Amino acid sequence: EADIYQTPRYLVIGTGKKITLECSQTMGHDKMYWYQQDPGMELHLIHYSYGVNSTEKGDLSSESTVSRIRTEHFPLTLESARPSHTSQYLCASSESRPVAGGTDTQYFGPGTRLTVL
Amino acid sequence: KNQVEQSPQSLIILEGKNCTLQCNYTVSPFSNLRWYKQDTGRGPVSLTIMTFSENTKSNGRYTATLDADTKQSSLHITASQLSDSASYICVVSDRGSTLGRLYFGRGTQLTVWP
Predict the structure, then answer these.
(1) Nearest neighbour of A110 by CB, restricted to B9, B42, B100
(2) Which residues contact B70 (CB under 8 A, 6 or more apart)?
(3) B4, B43, B93: residue with CB nearest A90
């Protein structure tokens, strides 16, 4: 099992609250990612980072923000949560050197199930 | 538009039986294809990865095949076990960027009954 951790695993909060979802990995990976996944749907990339002080928006527009101050830590913040933010949030990381054929394997954390009332 | 389509959407089989899951993709240029297993409430875990030149790859009771000409892949599960109950996700990567963009299918939800 990959050494990538997410907290909390489950979170139920009220509308308007500020929340931070934590993600940390102990594999020394430079690349980290945040995905959003709704039941029965594909994963959507919302943020990614190539390394410290590097953050980029993904394919799916998101009102969340991320930071990468340390290699092992990639938190995601929602300044004002809304019911539309209810979803599963998955963090992943990968090595910088891709395997033969191109892309490196992403290792996923267990996810945070967020419910905004 | 690059897409990954999986079928069936869901599947129920009895323990000990075999099954095959399908993945069709239109991603181009193609880099590699992965199958992930995602248990309920958990993150996906990589099962196999195949590049353009590979036709088949096995991981225990899981065997993936790839036909890059027809852009089709399958995941065959042999002698299914209750622990195989999960969502199986096909993920295709392109060569179009340094990031190596990933395209995710919606998954096949497999349920194995005793």
Answers:
(1) B42
(2) none
(3) B43
